[in-house]
Design a protein that fits this description.
The protein is α/β, with parallel strands linked by helices. The chain has 14 helices and twelve strands. The strands form two sheets. A seven-stranded mixed beta sheet has the order 1-3-2-4-11-5-12, sandwiched between helices. β7, α6 and β8 form a beta-alpha-beta unit. The longest helix has 20 residues. The radius of gyration is 20 Å and the shape is globular. The two termini are 23 Å apart.
């Protein structure tokens, strides 16, 4: 895990201004599409917990493999017994956070940037990060006819999903460490950073309007299938080759009122991650089946086969890497230094891990008191 770095307090006015920049994550699908087959279905067997249902949000995206497989295989539902899951899929962080804030979502799988910004904007009152979910799965893919080395990126047009999102911040930090300069607002500079929705990035790449992209899976592998070449895997930039790309959040209200339900969901995610790691091929097929159910079309083998092994599912929220990612955003002048004290509550996760004979995980000093 990367070394922790100190954080200071973010002024409230800067948080409000920065929110649109970072409140995003990468996904495919509708704004808030409920799984019609399961949305109102009663859970099969078992005793109901303190809530009749739990509303769980996720993106139909490979970096949300824990949710995809856990729902597809019934591993989360099994732990909930008679408490039914009401799943909802989202295509971006803002809509998921809006649902959580509005009370129509209880638990969500989401990226670090929207988690940070929603927490800070609410002044620490709306959510907690309660578990990790995935690491990795982010690559720099380029047109090999135009770019052969990392130094060749200078003067080229490289896409990121959105200004201030997790990949955009990482790329801006990489550019800075190269000694190059880019205006974070316009994306203009020694490299042209072109903010492009993941759904249209493959077409932009094929049309030649961008020369490459710093993107998550499966977008990265879609670009490779269209003739791109992986020039850099972001895992290579991290000391332990791990960094948070997806974590699990919960409404503080739901956590307070239904800790037994939250614990059951976490028991399900822990067992799901264990099953994924023990059965990678079956898990890949399961995730693809869930994606097909979401969109009507499964990912082609030439996309999912290289994408799947680059994603590590993990219970560990990799809290020190979230600190680092927030500092990169500060360095890029997209936000000022945020106060993240209390963003994590890993109490129930560590209880589940201990019961399963697994090591507990750290909140890097950012846990709720």
């Amino acid at each position: 895990m990367s070394a922790a770095r100190p954080l200071t307090t973010l002024r409230a006015i800067a948080v409000t201004a920065a929110l649109p920049l970072l409140l995003t994550a990468c996904g495919y699908g509708s704004e808030a599409k409920e799984d019609d087959d399961k949305a109102n279905a009663a859970a099969t067997g078992g005793k109901k917990l303190s809530a009749a249902e739990v509303r769980i949000g996720y993106f139909p995206n490979l970096t949300h493999a824990t949710a995809l497989v856990g729902l597809q295989e019934g591993l989360i539902q099994k732990e909930l017994g008679g408490t039914a899951i009401k799943p909802q899929s989202f295509n971006a962080g803002p809509s998921e956070i809006e649902a959580l804030n509005g009370g129509s979502l209880d638990i969500g799988f989401i990226g670090p940037s929207p988690s940070i910004n929603a927490y800070v904007k609410s002044r620490g009152t709306n959510l907690r990060i309660i578990s990790g979910s995935a690491s990795g799965g982010v690559k720099l893919v380029v047109n090999p006819d135009k770019i052969k080395t990392l130094d060749d990126l200078r003067g080229k047009k490289i896409a990121t999903p959105q200004k201030g999102n997790t990949q955009d911040v990482a790329f801006l930090n990489w550019i800075s460490e190269k000694g190059w300069s880019v205006d974070p607002e316009s994306g203009k500079g020694d490299v042209s950073v072109v903010r492009t929705d993941n759904k249209v990035t493959p077409d932009a790449f094929k049309q030649g309007s961008i020369d490459g992209a710093w993107v998550p899976e499966p977008t990265a592998s879609k670009l490779v299938s269209d003739g791109g070449s992986v020039l850099l895997d972001e895992t290579a930039l991290w000391p332990d080759k791990k960094f948070v790309i997806t974590n699990v959040i919960v409404s503080q209200k739901f956590l307070k009122e239904h800790p037994d339900v939250v614990e059951a969901v976490l028991a399900g995610t822990v067992k799901t991650n264990e099953w994924i790691n023990a059965n990678p091929d079956k898990a890949k097929a399961s995730a693809n089946a869930k994606l097909q159910a979401e969109s009507g079309k499964a990912l082609d083998a030439k996309v999912i086969d290289p994408a799947w092994p680059s994603i590590l599912v993990t219970d560990d929220p990799l809290a020190t890497t979230l600190k680092t990612e927030s500092e990169w955003a500060v360095k890029a002048k997209l936000i000022e230094q945020p106060d993240l004290a209390g963003i994590y509550d890993l109490t129930l996760l560590n209880k589940v891990l201990k019961a399963a004979g697994k090591p507990e995980v750290s909140d890097a000093g950012l846990g709720a008191k």
